[in-house]
Amino acid sequence: RKMSTKLKPKVFVTRRVPEDGINLLRQKCEVTQWDRDEAIPRHEILNGVKGVDGLFCLLTDKIDEEVLSTAGENLRVVGTMSVGYDHVDLSACRKRGIPVGYTPDVLTSATAELTMALLLTVSRRIQEGVTAVKDGSWGTWAPLWLCGQGLEGATVGVVGLGRIGFAVAQRLKPFGVSKILYTGQSEKASSAQLPAEYVTFDKLLNDSDFVIGCCALNSKTTGLFNADTFKKMKKNAIFINTSRGGLVNQDDLYTALKNGDILAAGLDVTSPEPLPTSHPLLTLENCVVLPHIGSATLKARNAMSELCARNIVAALYGEPIPCQVK
Ligand code: NDP
Ligand code: DGY
After folding, report:
1. Which is nearest to 63 in space by CA: 44, 39, 80?
2. DSSP 9
3. Which residue positions does the secretion signal occupy (predicted)?
């Protein structure tokens, strides 16, 4: 479709998002928005996308063939305000020649920090401590009460040494870990800087005191952490996941935590989100669940919103997209 010089391209935004992105979009585009903090219902996305040139979406929105075909042939770009893009049907976008923008790097530090915070919360039993202070079960200082596992001298396994995995490994070093292992689809040249050793998934599970899930969710990583993998871990292993809930078979995790196959777990991501308050994992003292707040600093969220908008504007004005999913 030829763009008229007078008409601004239309963009639909699926949520109330930080102003940096919206202001930038408004300068160049005609914006309609689901201007609420709650996730947009499916029928409202389908309504909102009709005839638009660009779509600004979040990880809570499933962008599939139905959304694309409902948008129609004007749609020239999908931008997600996230680095994960497992909610976007890439092959459907590719078939239609629609590029997908995303927001790597700007949230890496924030997510790595939260991963460390969660790891330390679990390993030093902070959730149990805070609860004890509040509910009066804090009796007295006691030599063996709430003793956890330290990072000093530990072997840590990072599953997926990508941007966030690498940033987590960097932050582990000052804690005096003895070894960092990693696994993934390929060995990374950058691992020499840490250093971190490339090993098989099984060796990582077998040798690590801490196992941290930092990889993308895809068909190969779905359910990667299951009864079989938890059994291969050390009995004192602590499992952390800040990637996507789909990596974990949660029933198997519950059983592993209950039976003592592993020591404890910390999850920033679950399946589904929110995790129902009745979920068995929430009954366990050795499991800490956070509400998907890895990138939740104002700085990161502003930057994500702005980068998402820049990706969309660039695509709509025929310029190179700053961050396009390959
Ligand atoms: P990167 O693309 O830089 O890293 C992804 C890593 O996943 C790569 O190292 C890749 O390894 C690995 N990977 C992909 N497929 C497999 C596989 N089959 N087996 C093992 N490893 C695999 O992404 P980021 O580090 O920027 O982000 C990673 C993920 O973190 C995002 O996809 C997102 O889901 C999640 N995330 C969660 C946040 C939160 O709020 N909790 C915040 C931000 C991100 P290789 O290169 O060898 O293929
Ligand atoms: C992402 O960007 O993929 C996170 O899950 C949220 O920031």
Report:
1. 80
2. P
3. none
pLDDT surpasses 60 at 53: yes
Both tokens assigned to 193? 């800087």
Q: Region of 320 please: left (phi>0), alpha (psi -120 to 50) or beta.
A: beta
Interaxial angle between packed helices 298-316 and 19-28, expressed in degrees from 0 to 180 and rounded to the nearest 10? 20
Which of 15, 85, 103, 107 to mutate for ligand 2's pocket (most ligand atoms within 8 Å of CB)? 107
Pocket of ligand 1 (CB under 6 A): 83-84, 104, 107, 111, 159-165, 184-186, 214-218, 220-221, 242-244, 268-269, 292, 294-295
What number does the ligand 1 atom closest to the CA of 111 have? 42
Predicted ipTM beyond 0.95: yes
What is the helix (H) or strand (E) element at residue 55, kind and residue range?
strand 54-57
Strand pairing partners for 289? 267
- The neighbour count for residue 21, using CB atoms within 10 Å, is 28
Annotated catalytic residues are 292
* Mean pLDDT score, 116-128: 98
- The CB of 82 under 6 Å from ligand 2? The reply is yes
Average pLDDT of the residues in 83-108: 98
Look up tokens 């963009």; give the residue: 11
Residue carrying structure tokens 């009745």: 278
Confidence of residue 3 (pLDDT cuts 50, 70, 90): low
Q: How far is the CA of 241 from the centre of ligand 1 (A)?
A: 11
Residue 230 has pLDDT above 80, yes or no: yes
30 half-sphere exposure, CB direction, 13 A CA radius: 10
The protein residue with its alpha carbon nearest to ligand 2, atom 2, reads 82
Q: What is the DSSP annotation of 292-313?
A: S-TT-SHHHHHHHHHHHHHHHH
